Amino acid sequence: MLPEYIQNETELEETLAEPSAADLACVARLTDNVLILGAGGKMGPSLARRVHRAVQRTGSRIDVIAASRFSSSSVRDELERDGVRTIACDLLDRTSIAGLPLAPNVLFLAGRKFGTLDRSDLTWAINTVVPAAVAEHFRQSRMVVFSTGNVYPLVPADGPGSNEEDQPAPVGEYAQSCLGRERVVEFVSREHGLRALIFRLNYAVDLRYGTLVDIARRVFNGEPVDLTVASFNAIWQGDANSYALRSVELCSSPPTVLNVTGAERIAVRAAAEWFGSAFGRPPRFVNTEGPVALLSDAGRCRARLGDAEVPLARLMAWVARWVEIGGASLNKPTHFEVADGRF
Predict the structure, then answer these.
(1) CA pair distance 135, 145, nearest whole angstrom
(2) Reported pTM
(3) Which fold has domain 9-206+235-264+293-309?
(4) 60-92 pLDDT, tens per residue?
(5) Which residues, including other chains, have CB under 8 Å from residue 302's CB and lie 6 or more apart?
(6) Cβ(192)–Cβ(252) under 8 Å?
(7) How far, CA to CA in Å, does 50 sit from each of 77, 177, 244?
């Protein structure tokens, strides 16, 4: 049962971590441990909890292991308290990678986006060198590799999104480095048999961040909403977590590619006007609708893994209530309005 609204961070974490029936069925079929790399970031903790809860409820004997630098010790402490085994690991250190347990099922979340303009070298290292080393270490495993829809070209804002058969044409160094990540994983897969899935996610929404949250906060605060990129996709982070877990069973060599996002093409103006109506505050706009946007077609994902559990209308209602009651923010804007790939 989906809550009508989410009132605080405790409820938010509970909702994000609640496994679906499909998650339980997947975990019941798994016979080997699950390792989550980059588990200290935005999605990692709730994904680890979701998998761990599914293990507990199915009576599975597999372990769920969360590995990260854990720059925030509180995140690690909370995961341990919830029963998730954790490992501190710097993925830029090959010795640390070599010490990771050879789990048969790996979810690889580590990556870098913001700050690329300041340290493009670090972005390339984290997004290409690290995945190459990790893929080599786990060449006998199944690995879901988080990527992004940014590897696709910008498409007409009023048209269909890119699908998995479209050729990548990344704009900017961040997107280029993400395609680099995909290519090095593909190389290890083809050369050494690594079974992998490239998880091209764009715009997961946790109520503390996300495209819809960015728009809602601007409307609520009376700040102008930028229309330069006129359309976008969004998906509830809990649904993205569920798809990530279940994608383990779709791994192949050479890698499977899967777009992951919501079914709708959302117009920025329409979303801002909806939030304005919800808040009783007419939105303000800046710039005019541009001709292109970053859009993905996730029809293959829905065909293989089913529809998302949280529909767009419910997600927007959650976001509106969260912003209205002063819910917490990670202060990490998505910059979805950026059209030149400079983050």
Answers:
(1) 9
(2) 0.96
(3) Rossmann fold (3.40.50)
(4) 999 999 999 998 889 999 999 999 999 999 999
(5) 263, 308
(6) no
(7) 17, 29, 11
